[in-house]
Amino acid sequence: MSGAVSVVNSRRVRKGAERDFVRWASRINAVASRFPGYLGSDLQPPDHIHPDEWVTVYRFGSVDELDSWLSSPKRADLLEEVEALLDGPVREQVIVEPVQADTPVTVVMSQHVPPERADEFAAAHDRVLGQLAEFPGFLRSELVSPVDGVTDDHVIIFAFDSREHLDRWLGSDERRAWLRQIAPLISGDRTMNLVGGFAGWFPTTNSRPVAKWKQGIAVLLALFPTALVLTVLREALLPDLPLVPSVLISNVLGVALLTWVMMPWVTKLLGPWLQR
Question: Rounded to the nearest 5°, which phi and psi values hold at 40?
């Protein structure tokens, strides 16, 4: 099995503990980044895809490298520390990607399918591909069967060229009808998570995508001054603003500045190095 492997953690955070949880997430990510095979991570606040849940995605180069992180004493200590901030148990998924794919936005749907219904589920996936072909921005879909010793779930990976096109599919009548068709084939809950990247900020030239580590450096160069300026302005202008609207306003302004101001400037400045 080639390609990366990801672990997706979904947590409900106690009301009022969001800021402490974000700080904890930053610390555990720093620890994970020092382990062999670490490719990156993504912290996703609650949204319409996973309401009331904070989702963390960690990506490693292989199953063995991921296992080294998952079984480490350092991770165990940090998980014990965060329990006081959580409301309920943690849901964890391990997803093995069959290929490396540089796609702007990906949604991962995971569900347990009884072995006797596996062929029907695969046929249902084939049917939905015909519908997806009609949707703007659809890039690919892959059905990943259970992997012994890693996961018992059937995983479907949907990739689109933009968040706008993905959201159109997620809210479509065709998708709702398809979910009703596969519901009898699934045992237990169905889990869906968004695994995004920075690809929309890095155009591909000569069919060569920008290396992930270079993307990370470029985003950091744009993100740090943006976040610093927004934090200083917010604390000066709205010092008593509650946490949730404070984070929302900062994120909206930050994404807008990164997308239309900072990232175009940074990618132009670093263009020759990014494509080298």
Answer: 155, 170
